[in-house]
Amino acid sequence: MSLVLIGSRAMKLRLGSAMKRAPLDFDFVVSSRDEANAWIASNYDRVGGRRVYEENNGRKVIVEGDTMVEFDIAVPGSSDEMLIDLVKSDEETMETSFGMLPSLPILFAIKDSHKYKKFGSSLNNHFWKTAIDWHTMKRMGCVIEDSHKEFHKLREKESYATQAHPKLNVNKDEFFNEVHGVFYQFEHDSLHQAVKHLDKPAYIYYAKDDQPVFSDKAKFFACDPMIRYYGAIEEASVLGLERSILAHGTWAPKVAWTFALSKIASSITSGFFRKWVFENIFDILKMYPEDYVEKFNVGLKNGTVRLLAQ
To answer: In what order do the strands lie in the sheet with 51-55?
Structure first.
């Protein structure tokens, strides 16, 4: 039998009280549909099953019930197949009544492989659960071990196979108006001027010469640490204004800003900046700028915030 328990229940068994949230479902990786069917036959009533259906061309089987259960069925050459092999050969694997329980390093490799994944939730709750889990495991010393790097690379490739990232090799107008696909009423740079914390917007301190969209990695890590934090805070402020406050105004400022921060740390940026924001996201959260909407309103009145040329 090749039943491998992953997801929140596996993490709870490995992390114990370090994991604060309660698992709500079961996630398994199996080598065949027959293995999924066998589990379902034995446990359907216990999970309050109501129906069973397939997704992803039969590669995922879902039991909808009081407790949701998902089975990812491994196919040749997939990371699921590699995962089963890793778990079977790992001396830290535990046999449980739920199936084989991977070691914490393997669970971390899985978590790390999709930490930037874009999900459909309006408030990006899946992102925050992932971020909390990742940071908890990181504090416990988890890293991608050498023996797991090939698996991690393949699973990462599969995770982001359908997720497009911004094209940064374009001019500024194309970047903001075409890549993000948002109608802008105000000049983007003027919003940065309005919400800045220092004498100039933080991103200017680490921008590449004559390339407004690009950031210079060497400059970014050479500048004062607070400038890096201000860079993330200001990006979330501008994004919160553009995507929520000014676009439809249905979210409170802190909700809009927090959601924008989650997008910066996942699906609308890439490279070293996204990585740094993700790794420091809970410190950044503590620095929420309560006055960013007020700063915009002041900027609008004094001419700092400018309308886009028609």
So the answer is: 51-55, 60-64, 68-73, 25-30, 4-6, 99-101, 94-96
Sign for the CA dihedral angle at 123, 124, 130, 135 comes to: negative
Measured in whole angstroms, how far is the alpha carbon of residue 52 from the centre of its chain? 28
The alpha carbon dihedral of 137, 139, 145, 149 has a sign of positive
Residue 207 identity: A
pTM for the whole thing?
A: 0.90
Q: DSSP 3-state assignment of 6?
A: strand
State residue 92 phi and psi, 5-degree precision: -90, -5
Residue 203, helix vs strand vs coil: helix
pLDDT of residue 118: 84
Q: Which helix (H) or strand (E) holds 207?
A: strand 207-208
**Do 119 and 159 form a contact (C-beta atoms < 8 A)?**
no
Instruction: Tally the residues of the chain.
Output: 310
Quick check: 86 and 151 in contact, CB under 8 A? Answer: yes
Domain ranges of the chain: 4-159, 172-302
Q: Decide: 88 and 2 in contact? Cβ < 8 Å.
A: yes
Q: How do residues 232-253 score in pLDDT, each as one tens digit?
A: 999 999 999 998 999 888 899 9
Could you tell me where the DSSP H helices lie in 114-209?
125-139, 149-159, 172-174, 188-195, 202-205
